[in-house]
Amino acid sequence: MFDVLQHAVRAKEILSVLARHGFADLIAKLELPAGVWQRLLPAPTPHRSPAERIRLAAEELGPTFVKLGQLLSMRPDIVPHEIILELRKLQDQVKPLPFAALRPILAEELGREPAQVFTEFDESPVAAASLAQVYFARLHTGEAVAVKIQKPDLHRSIEIDFDLAGWLAGLLQQHVAALQIVDVKGVIAEARRGVLRELDFRHEAHNQEYFNSLNPHPDRVYAPRVFSAFCSERVLVTERIAGSPLSQMADVPGDLRVRLAAFGAESLVRQVFLAGFFHADPHAGNLFLGHDGRLCFLDWGLAGHLTRRLRLALADFWIAAVEQDTERIVQIAADLAPVDARPDLRALEKEVTLALREELNFAIGRQALGRAMLRLLFLFGQAGIPLSRDYALMAKAVLSIEEVGRLLDPKFDLRPHTEPVLRELQWERARPRVLLRRSREMLRHTLLGLQDLPFELRRLVRRLEHDSLAINLHHRGLEDHDDAVKIAANRISLGVIIGSLIIGSSLIVTTGIEPHLLGYPALGIVGYLLSAVLGLYVIWDIIRHGRHK
Q1: Nearest one of 64, 279, 236, 311 to 163, comparing CA atoms
Q2: Would you tell me which of 73, 141, 276, 463 could form a disulfide with 87, CB atoms 3.0–4.6 Å apart?
């Protein structure tokens, strides 16, 4: 069990930051010890929206909470879309550490001195984030590379902060009614696993290599080449991209900007619908225009994965959203829901209709597909239909690529780039070779099942012959009736005992046997008193539990 006293200083710091950003009323509901709460003296803050205050608090609390906020922005099934849009603004830029603090990690992960690998190494970082810093260098073979080095002692601080976040989430879920329907601690645990996975740079290297192996248009888009021989859990070495991020494209000619927007959109749509593997955060800072005119996707620490079934369902979902077919959207979501989910489909259909009208009103130029997807996923989560986490990543990726597209081309529309990919996916689903293969697989499984059927029937008959067949029946919903029968039987037994005591005591009183108490046989008086006590107990038990029991 986690003991908050082990990290009391950090716990007080977290509570103080939350109070300073306007969440004092929320902390007051947690019933914390007075000594802790009374020392929190929040300074007055300007009036801001709750979503903005959450973002500012996360940035002040440091790397773990920044990462937690970024991962929560990928959970539109439980987080309202206005908070998600604010959490996406979380800044992961921090003051860089001196290279001397990271050099031991670089040497340890390389297994040799850096000078044996690099002929040049610029010790001034080109980027500094909460988890790592990036440096430019040159290998002995002559290639210009970017070296990403993880900061020291991250695991310990992250574990402490997530322990505290889990403790705080448990208190919030216990005392805030609106959070009791959400598995808040489960969400924190999932975010913890995601951050710890991100600390292993080998996953990022594998994602980049996998994308390049699937990429059908390397002349348009690509991911940096990975130098696997020098990559490890805490060091990532990739080719250096000579170019500029799309966030700095003010001086680029208009026709090139339009072409880049099309390249990025077509690539992401193909990643999602055809490959089932996609960059989960393609914002303008992660997209570079190289000097060769190609578009480069950077930072593959987080990627989405979709199975064939999820891709096909997503294609139907996407088409229904564009066509504003509310009934079809609700039906697809219900088909993907768990078997035990019982959503109110009529109420959900009404909410979906309203969301589509507000986010996808093509008549007035409102065509925010990413925002619409985020909002729909939140509605599904509220209705008890938790969809795949990768759907949430997809919605966030679509939102990012739409924002980049409009940054480059104010008239950007994602639909024309989606239509040819969806047609290709539908052809993949319906082409004769695929139908023939699926029919052949279905026939093979059916024949195998028929082949095993005689053996299974023979085994069943033998069990019947030897009286070893048992059928287990479990009656649901009868637990209360079972308790009621037991209580009634106990009361009847007590009633019989009380009646017997009264009759026996009366017979003893008539005999006049000694010893006497108050002029009557003492044994009879004791029997009367015992029956009175038991009778009062039965009456009190009936009043306490109610007549229905």
Answers
A1: 64
A2: 73
How many whole angstroms separate alpha carbon 63 and alpha carbon 548? 56
End-to-end Cα, the chain, rounded Å: 39
Instruction: Respond yes or no: is residue 316 known to be catalytic.
Output: no
Q: Which residues contact 271 (CB under 8 A, 6 or more apart)?
A: 211, 277, 278, 279
Would you call the peptide bond into 96 cis, given omega within 30 degrees of 0 as the criterion?
A: no
Residue 192's identity, in one-letter code, is R
Q: Average of pLDDT values for 328-351?
A: 80
Query: What CA–CA distances, in Å, run from 422 to 145, 158, 312, 330?
Result: 37, 41, 9, 20
Give the per-residue pLDDT at 549: 44
Closest Cα to residue 192, out of 77, 305, 65, 99?
65
Angstrom distance (rounded) from CA 238 to CA 17: 38
The string of pLDDT tens digits covering residues 510-532 is 777 778 877 778 887 888 888 88
d(CA 209, CA 214): 9
Going by C-alpha positions, the residue among 136, 10, 88, 1 that lies closest to residue 404 is 88
What tokens appear for 505 in the block? 């005591």
Structural contact between residues 264 and 405, judged by C-beta atoms closer than 8 angstroms: yes
Residue with tokens 């960059």: 279
Q: How far is CA 474 from CA 347, 463, 485, in A?
A: 34, 22, 18
Strand, helix or coil at 429?
A: helix
Q: Residue 5, Cβ neighbours under 10 Å: how many? A: 7
Helix (H), strand (E) at residue 319: helix 308-322
Q: What is the pTM of this model?
A: 0.70
* Run of H or E including 355: helix 345-359
Per-residue pLDDT reduced to its tens digit, 146-205: 999 999 888 888 888 888 888 887 777 777 766 666 667 777 887 888 888 888 999 999
Alpha-carbon gap, residue 306 to 391, rounded angstroms: 8
Residue 379 has pLDDT above 80, yes or no: yes
Q: How far is CA 399 from the centre of its chain?
A: 18
What is the DSSP track for 65-112? HHHHHHHHTT-TTTS-HHHHHHHTT-----PPPPHHHHHHHHHHHHTS
Query: How many CB atoms are located within 10 Å of the residue 416 CB?
Result: 11
Say how far apart CA 505 and CA 507 lie, in whole Å: 5
14, burial (CB in 10 Å: exposed 0-12, middle 13-18, buried 19+): buried
In degrees, rounded to 5, the angle at the alpha carbon of residue 87 between the alpha carbons of residues 20 and 70 is 110
Nearest to 230 by CA among 163, 169, 140, 299: 140
Query: Residue 506 pLDDT > 50, yes or no?
Result: yes
What does pLDDT average to over the chain?
A: 81
Sign of CA dihedral 312, 305, 219, 396: positive
Going by C-alpha positions, the residue among 87, 93, 91 that lies closest to residue 49 is 87
- pLDDT confidence of residue 179: 67
For residues 241-245, average pLDDT? 85
Alpha helices in 383-478 (DSSP H): 389-408, 415-430, 432-465
